[in-house]
């Protein structure tokens, strides 16, 4: 389970994290380590961290029942499921 506070978010898998773009503003925009250069809402940052942990717990494959979760969460981040998995796993290597 990801650790989520007002000042940071950390995944239990790899070195994935998120921080507010402007320190002290937890409800402003956030930057997620595996989505460099993108500013996300707090809700999107939480989604990104949940997705990171979900993939880290045995990434589902396309067509599996669990894949629909990856598709939905990735869509909230304006990514395809495949893009999200590749970006998340690419930072573990």
Helices and strands, with pairings:
Elements: E1 3-4, E2 9-10, E3 17-20, E4 30-32, H1 42-56, H2 67-76, H3 81-90
Helix pairs in contact: 1-2, 1-3, 2-3
What descriptors fit this protein?
single chain; 93 residues; alpha+beta; four-stranded antiparallel β-sheet; 3 helices; globular
Give helix % range: 25-40%
Rg is 13 Å
Domain count, please report it.
1
Q: Can you tell me the overall shape?
A: globular
Termini separation comes to: 21 Å
β-strand number: 4
Average pLDDT score: 90
Tell me the series of helices and strands, N- to C-terminal: EEEEHHH
The side-by-side strand order for the widest beta sheet comes to: 1-2-3-4
Q: Quickly give the structural class.
A: alpha+beta
Describe the sheet with the most strands. 4 strands, antiparallel
Helical stretch count?
3
Proportion of strand residues: 5-15%
**Uncertain segments of ≥5 residues (pLDDT<50)?**
none
């Amino acid at each position: 389970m990801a650790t989520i506070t007002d000042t940071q978010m950390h995944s239990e898998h790899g070195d994935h994290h998120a921080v507010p773009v402007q320190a002290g503003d937890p409800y402003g925009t956030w930057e997620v380590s595996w989505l460099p250069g993108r500013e996300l809402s707090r809700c999107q940052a939480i989604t990104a961290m949940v997705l990171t942990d979900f993939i880290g717990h045995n990434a589902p494959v396309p067509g599996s029942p669990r894949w629909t979760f990856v598709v939905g969460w990735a869509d909230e981040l304006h990514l395809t499921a495949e893009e999200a998995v590749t970006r998340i796993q690419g930072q573990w290597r």
